[in-house]
Amino acid sequence: MPTRRPVAALAFAAGLVVIAGGVTGLLLTRHSTPAMRPAAVGVGAVPAPTGPIVAAFPAPTGPIVAVSQSAAPKPVAAPVSLTIPLIGVQTNLMTLGLEPDGELQVPPLNMVSVAGWYTGSPRPGAIGSSIIVGHIDGDAGNVEGVFFRLRQLSAGDKIYVKRSDGTLVEFRVTSVQQYPKDHFPTEAVYGPVPDPELRLITCGGAYDPATHHYVLNLVVYATEVS
Amino acid sequence: MNFWSVSTRRLLMLLAASALLLGIPAAATAFASSATTGTGWIRLAHLSPNTPAVDVYLYSFDNSKAMIVLHHVAYGTVSPYESVQAGDYSVAMRAAGASATSQPVLSTSVTIAAGHAYTVAGMGPESGLRLQVLDDALTTPSGQALVRVIQASLKQQEVKVTLGSTVLAGSLKFASVSAYQAVTPGTETVTVSALSAGAGDANSSVTLAAGTVHTLVVLDGASGLEVVSLEDASGSGKPPLGGVQTGFGGTAPHGPGSPVPWLVAIGAGSLLALTGGLRLRRNRQLIARI
Predict the structure, then answer these.
(1) What pTM was computed for the model?
(2) In this structure, how many other beta carbons lie within 10 angstroms of the beta carbon of residue A127?
């Protein structure tokens, strides 16, 4: 019937539109996202924090007057926040322990923007290797974790930790390393060191959807600037 | 219909291409072989009771300009550790205030290996002063603390050192160093007693945490023996097992989703267009017939 003509034409046109949409959708989703995450650039750098920088004790660089370690270094306060100006990290620090199976606790899924200090490690600024961990990302929606840009750090970059007494301790990155998780260098990361050091840990490498874990750990090594 | 065959061929090609893309293993990631940055640690100490204060110089082997100078280092002083590039160094002692270019009273060479720590200490009586290089431990048995004793009391030539009920050194002679001993973490009383009669004991409470390395230094105090506890190194008493699960994969590369919804849409669209198209043609034929 001639009166049905506009309806038929409309159906034909709508059908073509749906086909076009389907083909476009199919084409657009046939590519996996790039194998390497694009380097994050243009990060809103945060200013270095201010506050008294109090070293646990002075280090013997340059001519200094007799330094005695005879009196044990004063205990330092617990860490409360972390700032990495270069990559825009500014976060409070939660406390982390060990899981029942002995693995290191990590911040929960709803706190991927917060880093945590492992309370079984020395406090930042005290002698020894202090451990701070943070997520690289959330579970969906391209949500970046607090340490998403950690791999952009390199030797010489500055890291600041503020402590509960308001004092600030400044660290300098000495190296950035990646390790397969099944060959994690426990001794190098968690073992004793004789000066105040910091290790920042996050994930890296490929994500294994089968295990829901990344295959590598990224570790930033830093020492206190005195 | 031609449309279908082209579409199917293209789809197959796309599927094959994406399978290839997915199949490329991301195993090409390179990682550095070790965490070492090629640095070690050194600290300097004055542990000779009757030697006046000294200036201590640290030189990199091929450089006559001192890397580190500690001025007026008196008996009983132990510096913090300094991180230095692995390599050969020399340590020189001069009388406090002596010119940096004057002949040192004493000097010794020390080779610093990456990841290792050393104490270079002036030890012995002034008449027999020597610079001793000590290899400092940086690993502890799991869940334990390490402790050793440096005997730097000249007045009491031989001492016994106990930590709680543990004997750290039964008879330690002046200017000698005990071997490291692994001990159970906790707070204990250190007791230093002279083996010769008449001298009082020195007591001190020390807390030794798991994963820490300590040196106890026995000194001649103003009145009798003194003991000083140094925390040389510290790590995680309970090292976490394995790697750290610090990611949920939200920003990770993902494979393509299922093509089924898109294929269904294409199918439904085709059906719609086909129905509409057929009806249009029929209408046109009807009109033509009129």
Answers:
(1) 0.75
(2) 30
